[in-house]
Amino acid sequence: MPFYHRLGAIPHKRHTQFRKPDGTLYREEVMGTKGFSGVQSILYHAHHPTELKHAEKLTDLSVKYTEFGAIRHRHFKTLLCPAGGDAYSSRRVLLGNSDVMLGVARPVASMDYYYRNGDNWEVIFVHDGAGRLESFFGWLDFKPGDYIVIPVGTIYKLHLDGQDNRLLIIESATPVEPPKRYRNEYGQLLEHAPYCERDIRVPEHLETHDERGEFEVRVRARGELHRHILAHHPLDVVGWDGYLYPWIFNIGDFEPITGRIHQPPPVHQTFEGWNFVVCSFVPRLFDYHPQAIPAPYVHSNVNSDEVLYYVDGNFMSRKGVEKASFTLHPSGLPHGPHPGTIEASIGAKETKELAVMVDTFRPLQVAVQALEFEDDRYATSWYEGAR
């Protein structure tokens, strides 16, 4: 995030002696991006963060993609995706490319180990469920509608309050942040932005663990999953400061931008990464021109794939979709409202729809494990005789 935060105990000056009550040194770690030219935080550990007792490779994490086949619009219904496991082990990648991966998880248990994604930034959208993110940056409680943004390299675990959980998982090879057009030259969110710093939740409670022993951290790195056994508790940070840390933004705090006539999709943009954007469709008033057509116009994605994940409400421009549906509209094809929805939208005053959209600027591939959820009739559903 583009604003400074500090938590816990830190010395007056960076890279200077910072001692424990017994006179020994705390261990300073600079955690940053882009080779010391990007955002960073400085953490102070009770133990050496490099103190490793054991390392082993667990499994290959490469995603098996299928041949796309005939270019067409596609629909994947994940409502009945099997539940089980924890917030990491239950993940299923459905769509992806070299920039971003999209998937779902239906965990029923809290993680009994810690996890570090050394390859990607993560955005976890909490569709259903609640709990707490515990990381070496501190605690963050989460609830339905939260986007949890976790920087690459963060050690964390997710505690779940119950078993009814549904998560949308976005993994990005690059930082995920508010769009540049929402920020001034100092990084502050501007008046026209659909949210501001007050809407962002940052870690406020830091619990330091000083225990020694054997502690498991599962590490994603180089497309593989590894097990590390540390000689001390991984959450041994006594304090930190900087610009790099997990944070949460709730979709309910996104202020929709509306107008007299239909507004283009970029007004819904919430975050950006390299070669993709994340947008939030939230309840809002419709257009107020006397001749307005609230339903979106047909448009061609000539250089981007569009994915919509349906969260709640009645999405007024689509038929046949349901909660937890994914629709994929690939580049090179026009797409738009289903037959009858344009006429039905005229005169409507508002919508209660809630959805997350991801537009990618390189083609997405479909994972093999997405095929069991596919609605094969979706591609022809604009032809009224097909249903």
How would you describe this protein?
By secondary structure, this protein is mainly β. The chain has a domain at 251-381: Jelly Rolls. The chain has one helix and 29 strands. The protein has one helix spanning 341-345; strands at 5-8, 27-32, 40-45, 52-60, 74-77, 92-96, 100-105, 114-117, 121-128, 131-135, 138-142, 146-150, 155-160, 166-172, 200-201, 212-221, 224-232, 237-242, 247-250, 269-273, 276-281, 284-285, 299-300, 305-312, 325-329, 334-335, 350-351, 354-360, 365-366. A hairpin with a 3-residue loop joins strand 6 and strand 7. The N and C termini lie far apart (47 Å).
What distinguishing features does this structure have?
single chain, 387 residues, mainly beta, Jelly Rolls, 8-stranded antiparallel sheet, 7-stranded mixed sheet, globular
Topology:
Elements: E1 5-8, E2 27-32, E3 40-45, E4 52-60, E5 74-77, E6 92-96, E7 100-105, E8 114-117, E9 121-128, E10 131-135, E11 138-142, E12 146-150, E13 155-160, E14 166-172, E15 200-201, E16 212-221, E17 224-232, E18 237-242, E19 247-250, E20 269-273, E21 276-281, E22 284-285, E23 299-300, E24 305-312, E25 325-329, E26 334-335, H1 341-345, E27 350-351, E28 354-360, E29 365-366
Parallel strand pairs: 8-16
Antiparallel strand pairs: 1-18, 2-3, 3-18, 4-17, 5-25, 6-7, 6-29, 7-14, 8-13, 9-12, 9-14, 10-11, 10-13, 12-19, 15-19, 16-17, 20-21, 21-28, 22-27, 23-26, 24-25, 24-28
Give a quick account of the main beta sheet: strands, pairing sense, barrel closure.
8 strands, antiparallel
Please list the strands of the largest sheet in the order they lie side by side. Answer: 15-19-12-9-14-7-6-29
CATH topology of the domain at 251-381: Jelly Rolls
Second rung of CATH, namely the architecture of the domain at 251-381: Sandwich
Kindly state the mean pLDDT as a whole number? 95
Low-confidence stretches: none
Total number of strands? 29
Q: Can you count the helices?
A: 1
Note the run of SSEs as H and E. EEEEEEEEEEEEEEEEEEEEEEEEEEHEEE
CATH superfamily of the domain at 251-381: Jelly Rolls
Helix content: under 10%
Q: What is the name of the CATH class of the domain at 251-381?
A: Mainly Beta
Q: Strand percentage, roughly? A: 35-45%
Structural class: mainly beta
| Outline type | globular
Radius of gyration: 22 Å
Spatial separation of the terminal alpha carbons: 47 Å
